[in-house]
Amino acid sequence: MAEGFGSNYIDKHNIQSAGTHPLPIHPLAITVMNEIGIDIANHKSKSISEDVIMSFDLVITLCGDARDQCLYLKKTSKKFIHWNIKDPAKVSGLKEKRLKVFRNIRDEIIDKIKLLHNEISS
């Protein structure tokens, strides 16, 4: 979801998404992004090497697992930010409950992306 927002709201920057353990995009993430007109169906979670990370101006981790498993990011990237966002894929229960969580996380991410956009644009 973050890459979808970043690609749509932060132009003039190369936005890439990766995972500590890349998995296919969660179908509910695709659903809730489609609800607001952003298609992430063809996005893929991928691994990014430490060499590539070193070339980034900014690295953002979104959940505790990523921050904890990527401690070297603080040493290799020019700027490192951690957004403590719950991983919606880890929520269990009925589909409506999980959709609500995905929507809440989607909205939290877009708020942070907009703030980031304002920060790097000024």
Q: Which helices and strands occur, and which strands form pairs?
A:
Blueprint: H1 2-9, H2 27-34, H3 50-54, E1 59-61, H4 64-69, H5 73-76, E2 80-82, H6 95-121
Parallel strand pairs: 1-2
Side-by-side strand order of the widest sheet? 1-2
Structural class: mainly alpha
The portion of residues assigned to helices is 40-55%
Q: What is the total tally of β strands?
A: 2
Can you give a write-up of this model?
This protein is mostly helical and 122 residues long. It has 6 helices and 2 strands, in the order αααβααβα. The chain has a two-stranded parallel ribbon with strand order 1-2. The protein has a single domain (2-121), classed as 3-Layer(aba) Sandwich (Rossmann fold).
Condensed summary:
With 122 residues, this protein is mainly alpha-helical.
Features:
122 residues; mainly alpha; Rossmann fold; two-stranded parallel ribbon; 6 helices; 5% strand
